[in-house]
Amino acid sequence: MNRKRPFTFEEFKSIYSKVPRLCVDLVIKNNDKVLLTLRQKNGYEGQWHLPGGTVMYRESINDAAKRIADEELGIRIKIEKFFGYLEYFSEEKERGFGYTVSLVFVCKPENDSFELDDQVERIQYFKTPPDNTIYEQKELLSKLLE
Predict the structure, then answer these.
(1) CA-CA distance, 72 to 120, in Å (whole number)?
(2) Is 4 contained in some domain?
(3) Does the pTM of the predicted model rise above 0.85?
(4) CATH code, 84
(5) C-beta of residue 55 within 8 angstroms of C-beta of residue 64
(6) d(CA 146, CA 141)
(7) Which SS3 state, helix, strand or coil, does residue 68 take?
(8) What are 124's strand-pairing partners?
(9) Do the beta carbons of residue 125 and residue 30 sit within 8 Å?
(10) Under a CB-based contact definition with an 8 Å cutoff, are residues 48 and 132 in contact?
(11) What is the rounded distance in angstroms from the CA atom of residue 33 to the CA atom of residue 53?
(12) Is 136 in contact with 144 (CB distance < 8 Å)?
């Protein structure tokens, strides 16, 4: 499954070199474990990360979270609570431009029949984040899973 793209990479880079990008990250819990995806393209390749993505123009935050769960994982989610936000200052080093501010939501999957998009190599539930987890997310998950 491929995600919908509202503009080209050149437009993306031009816009997000000037302003932060608003995203949502999904902490999908199964008992005491959290679902992470292993990234295979579009930045942070070979690193574990929370499912997440950009909030589109005129899209509500809740709708964005549900769309991202569907596009990235092929599942429906129930949002349980807003957990906080992350600022991805490491993103400029990773991509060479920009950074993201992401709203983090704790969620439960409504089904477990995953259909992964082309950015995800594989998924796995973890009790503690592995060493090769995106830095900002690893810090957040370490606190959340204590």
Answers:
(1) 8
(2) no
(3) yes
(4) 3.90.79.10
(5) yes
(6) 8
(7) helix
(8) 36
(9) yes
(10) yes
(11) 21
(12) no
